[in-house]
Design a protein that fits this description.
498 residues; alpha/beta; six-stranded antiparallel sheet; 12 helices; 21 strands; 24% helix; disordered N terminus
Length: 498
């Protein structure tokens, strides 16, 4: 049998923000002016875990300095990540001299002399000596998000400086939320990079500052000015609610934004949490699968020097990486309606289809509860509690019951908000108006059975199903395939005509 196309022909829609007037030519070259990032970028970035930690006396192995990036480069090589395709170390904010400092003679950006005593060229040279690309950060604003000097008004000078330092990839943040400047600033930086004499991949954060509605963002313009990827929406935070909200957002808008993705220009879902203890292994597999189906950059935000074997196995899964890096470059999308369980799919270059069976909130555990009023049992681990809003008490109860890492939760009935607690060891905290529920016993969530109908993804007749996580053929099936998927997990399969 002949497989039909999962996706129809791409119809380019040109859209702009309500508050920003942008002139766009009638015909857009979807290849862009710079032939870089022909597959989604892969690498490691410091921001998710190390943020702007600059106190190297207190945390010498955890601060933003040259030693951190050199040690991560070493771990990228020794951990086999470079060999797998994670080829760039990205320095994020807080690397420069503070207080708007530039070189008094040349006006060039300069690195913090204490934390980067040999300058940024030396850091880049170390990375290049390992076969690793050098990623750096600036912002289209007078200052970066943490108050360091930005590139607004200095685009050509800074692009030339970055080229002299050997930068291979530049992330350009927004930070000042000045939408009117972005209209000229981001194109100016794109032009400056193209004229710098060095091939520098250009990551633009412009869309992330234009609100929630992806249909109002100037993606065609981003392609024209040479953006090789762009941050669309909210920053990743190290918890499941934020991760799942980003997945929901891509599900809601994926069928629109995928028309702008392809070799040289990618929608960026933000950093991978895999390897951090803020998500479970099942949640980590979900992120790897959904990011790969959406052709999103795979940029790790963890500590490469300290990682579990299970996290490493997810990140190094060669079949998952192959889906992400598939040369066809078609972004996938959510095939079924938004629900507790969903089917996602992506066409691949060899005629097969990658399918994700996503269990967002399916399956039902059973629990017993103790209840207190005018307060709640508090955790001693507040950095790992997960707060929520707009949930009924029944919804919060079931969500906590389904999650084996939830020991109980606080709840304010008047605002329908509260926090899920990973433990309750710090005792009763008096808080008038709140109630607290503590889990006394529970049965494990058995997961959910999720089915992909083969005609949903363009197949008829016999279909071979390959399990990407198990790296083994499951069998040959007709009409549909069903898998039991753990809570917050995603079954990840490759379907091909038998």
């Amino acid at each position: 049998m002949i497989r039909g196309a999962l996706f129809g022909a791409v119809l380019l829609a040109l859209a702009v923000s309500d508050s920003v007037a942008i002139a766009i030519t009638a015909t857009v070259d979807l290849n862009g002016p710079v032939q870089l990032s022909q597959t989604p970028p892969m690498g490691w970035m410091s921001w998710e875990l190390f943020r702007c930690d600059i106190d190297c006396d207190v945390e010498p192995t955890h601060c933003v300095n040259a030693a951190l990036y050199e040690s991560m480069a070493d771990a990228l090589v020794s951990g086999q990540f470079l060999k797998a395709g994670y080829d760039t170390i990205h320095i994020d904010d807080c690397w420069a001299a503070l207080n708007g400092s530039r070189d008094p003679v040349t006006n060039e950006l300069i690195a913090n002399s204490t934390r980067f005593p040999e300058g940024m060229y030396a850091v880049g040279s170390y990375l290049h000596s390992k076969g690793i690309k050098f990623g750096l950060y600036t912002a289209e604003s007078p200052h970066t998000c943490k108050g360091y000097p930005g590139s607004a008004g200095y685009e050509q000078l800074d692009a030339n400086t970055f080229a002299d330092w050997g930068v291979d990839y530049l992330k350009v943040d927004g930070c000042n939320r000045n939408k009117s400047y972005y209209v000229t600033g981001y194109p100016a930086m794109g032009k400056a990079l193209q004229e710098s004499g060095r091939a520098i991949a250009y990551s633009c954060s412009w869309p992330a500052y234009l609100g929630d509605d992806e249909t109002l963002k100037p993606f065609a313009t981003l392609i024209q000015i040479g953006c090789n990827s762009w941050r669309n929406w909210h920053d990743m935070q190290c918890d499941w609610p934020k991760l799942s909200s980003i997945i929901d957002h891509w599900g809601d808008y994926g069928n629109y934004i995928r028309q702008f993705a392809g070799p040289g220009h990618w929608n960026d879902m933000d950093m991978l949490l895999i390897g951090n203890d803020c998500i479970t292994d099942d949640e980590a597999r979900t992120q790897m699968a959904i990011w790969s189906i959406n052709a999103a950059p795979l940029i790790m935000g963890n500590d490469l020097r300290n990682m579990t074997d299970s996290s490493k196995a997810i990140l190094l899964n060669k079949d998952a990486i192959a889906v992400n890096q598939d040369p066809l470059g078609q972004q996938g999308y959510r095939v079924t309606p938004k629900n507790d369980t969903e089917v996602w799919a992506r066409n691949l270059n060899d005629g097969s289809v990658a399918v994700g069976l996503y269990n967002k909130n399916g399956g039902t555990a059973t629990c017993g509860w103790d209840k207190v009023t005018d307060g709640y049992m508090e955790t001693c681990d507040p950095q790992h509690e997960q707060c929520f809003s707009e949930k009924t008490q029944a919804e919060a109860t079931q969500e906590c019951c389904n999650n084996p890492d939830c020991a109980g939760f606080s709840f304010n009935p008047s605002t329908e908000s509260g926090c899920f607690k990973p433990s309750l060891a710090c005792g009763f905290l008096k808080s008038p108006g709140f109630i607290g529920l503590s889990k006394t016993n529970s049965s494990a969530n058995p997961g959910a059975d999720i089915t992909v109908q083969f005609d949903q993804v363009g197949f008829v007749g016999n279909v071979t199903v390959y399990d990407i996580w198990k790296q083994a053929v499951v069998g040959v099936f007709q009409n549909n395939f069903t898998a039991t998927v753990p809570y917050h997990g995603t079954g990840f399969f490759k379907l091909s005509q038998a």
